Amino acid sequence: MSDQILINVGIGETRVALVDDGVLRDLVIERSVDDSAHGPCSGGTTGASLVGNLMMGRVERVLPGMQAAFVDIGLPRSGFLGVREAQCLCELMGLRDAGKMPRINDCVREGEKVLVQVLKDPIGDKGPRLSANVTIPGRLLVLVPHQPGVALSRRIEDEDDRARLTELVERVGADVAASEDGDDLKKAGWIVRTAALQADEAAVERDARHVLETWREVKERAKGMNGPATVFKELGPVQRVLRDHLNEDTKAVLIDDADAYVKARAYCDAVMPGYADRLKHHTARQALFAEHGVDAEIESALSSRVDLPSGGWITVERTEALTAVDVNSGSFTASTNLEQTSHRINLEAADAIARQVRLRGIGGLVIIDFIHLAEDEHKEEVVARLEAGFEGDRTPTQILPMTEFSTVEMTRKRVREPLERLLLDPVRRDPNKTRATVAYEALRAAEAAATDNPGQPLALHTAPDIVTWLDDSGLMPQLRARLGVDVVLKPVEGARRHHIDVAVMA
């Protein structure tokens, strides 16, 4: 849960920070133009997340040996559709035997069109992960058109609440489906989101009707499409974070863009009545992320070393196979013996590791090398502290007990590019920022200079490759329109990539 949500909407980039008790817990960055994941390119490539989008794709290849198919959805790399994510197609055609997993060639055939949903964005050299078992998310409920039954969020733990919500959603779903007079809806199922805990029956019914209307629009739109094409786009980053994270624990949502603030208020009024008064338009002179220390946190998250309060530190190193975290005691010597020293450092490290894994968007296998502990009680306490750091995290995480060598293995679902891959250039040996990352910093610097010098034309001095990127990106006209002044790009020959200087033009 986050008690404060900070939303920075810039030219071509939206950044969302989730803050809990003054501590940055999670960060989402979404760009309209990017080059970090695809290498140098002319004009950049799209960086907007595709997760949740419904696409009309065309099956390119069916691979029985892998029990999977590759589907063209209009991206440079085809999407991956596994048999588990395709089995609902067999059920729709009545081809699946009860209790038996179908074969991929029973579900799809090469050349045919198929409606799929993006589960994971392309990461590295891998294309997007797809599912034919599409879902339509609302604030309280998620419609699952091809899978009957009611499932509940794993974060709804109380058995009485689970029984109450199951009965409520079964009743509401049946009533709404009957009123819609659709035979296909009688086979649909629902997922109950955590936000439904505080909702009354009228709100649940309103949300059910909303997602059913969306599904009806999707079906109508899909009828005339052959693919590859986008049938339905998930909400933008601002509305999405409000839907998924704004709740009773949230004290304030600060948005620094006037247009985004107006749209966010309208979304809340329509979908989340009663929450709109928590939205605030940030109009202070200092930039939102700078005022709350988020920019500094992002910079520190790009370093492999994270210092601990007692003088120790952790080192985070990512490889293609896994992420390794090493815990070091450093200069800490205050405890009376080695076990106490190791115990205290490890507890601090567990807090820091959980926070860094979430903040950096680390997924996959993580191996943590804690300082050696001899006592089982201390080992269990450290693991419990690590698990507590992931409470409220929406990304599924599994943590194993500590081994006799004081190492811990954990896995976390990969849902997006890690911060390091998004912001840093993987080609260079030193941790150098990508052209896109520096270019967006330059755009923010120009906005800050315009605030300090209203009505004055500006010259943006930066490295030649950043000037080229900005010229090709198509973002400069947006910047000039937003600021209402002319901004001229000035390449500085021989300047390092991170060089940015904004001056008032004479």
Model description:
The chain has helices at about 85-95, 105, 160-180, 200-225, 235-245, 260-270, 290, 295-300, 340-360, 375-390, 420-425, 435-450, 465-475, 475-485, and strands at about 5-10, 15-20, 25-35, 45, 55-65, 70, 80, 115-120, 130, 135, 140-145, 150, 190, 230, 250-255, 280, 305, 315-320, 325-330, 365-370, 395-400, 405-410, 460, 485-490, 500-505. The chain is an alpha+beta fold and about 500 residues long. The strands form 5 sheets. The chain has a 6-stranded mixed beta sheet with strand order 4-3-2-1-15-16, with helices on both faces. Strands 17-18-19-20-22-21 form a 6-stranded mixed beta sheet, with helices on one face.
Summarize the structure.
By secondary structure, the chain is of the alpha+beta class. The chain has helices at 83-93, 104-107, 159-180, 201-223, 237-245, 258-271, 288-291, 294-301, 338-359, 376-388, 419-423, 435-452, 464-473, 476-483; strands spanning 4-10, 13-20, 23-34, 45-47, 54-63, 68-72, 79-82, 113-120, 129-131, 136-137, 141-144, 149-152, 189-192, 229-232, 252-255, 279-281, 305-307, 313-318, 323-328, 364-369, 397-399, 407-412, 458-462, 487-491, 500-504. It has 14 helices and 25 strands.
**Radius of gyration from the alpha-carbon trace, in angstroms:** 25 Å
Tell how many strands the DSSP assignment holds. Answer: 25
Gap between N and C termini: 49 Å
Major beta sheet summary: 6 strands, mixed
* Residues in helices, as a percent range: 25-40%
- Widest sheet: strand ordering: 4-3-2-1-15-16
Strand-residue proportion: 25-35%
Structural class comes to alpha+beta
Poorly predicted residue ranges:
36-46
Oligomer: single chain
Shape: globular
How many helices does DSSP assign? 14
pLDDT average, as an integer? 88
